[in-house]
Amino acid sequence: MEPLLVLTNVPDRGAAEKLARALVECRAAACVNVLPACRSIFRWQGAVEARDEIPLLIKTTAANYPLIEAIVRAQHPDEVPELIAVPITHGLPAYLDWVATETEKHD
Question: How large is the average pLDDT for residues 22-35?
Fold first, then answer.
């Protein structure tokens, strides 16, 4: 099992809740933290942009990353959404086992 922390941002709280729920309900993620709004400043298509966004911290496994990516791409309003996966190299073993168990597919 290779645990991952996946980061993304969405434009508003409603989109954040909808995406978080979709990821957990289909077992793509064990948990999604919906954080308070932050201000993002970035370059897009030659211009410097700024907007408020809601960050999401998605706890999952490498095996589930393709499903996470598919769901984010389908639900995210941006043409190129931020989607970054960071390997979790250390963590409480019981928590990491829980992440693995909660993201297993059950028929």
Answer: 97
Query: Are 6 and 68 within 8 A, CB to CB?
Result: yes
Q: How many CA atoms lie within 13 A of 82 on its CB side?
A: 18
Provide the 3-class DSSP secondary structure of residue 48.
strand
Cα–Cα distance measured from residue 98 to residue 101, given in angstroms and rounded to the nearest whole number: 5
Q: Are 83 and 23 in contact (CB under 8 A)?
A: no
Tokens matching residue 100: 């693995």
pLDDT tens-digit map of 51-70 = 999 999 999 999 999 999 99
Q: Is the pTM of this model over 0.85?
A: yes
The count of residues in the chain is 107
List domains and CATH numbers for the chain: 3-76 (3.30.70.120)
| Partners of 49 in the β-ladder | 42
State the Cα angle at 48 between 81 and 74, rounded to 5°. 15
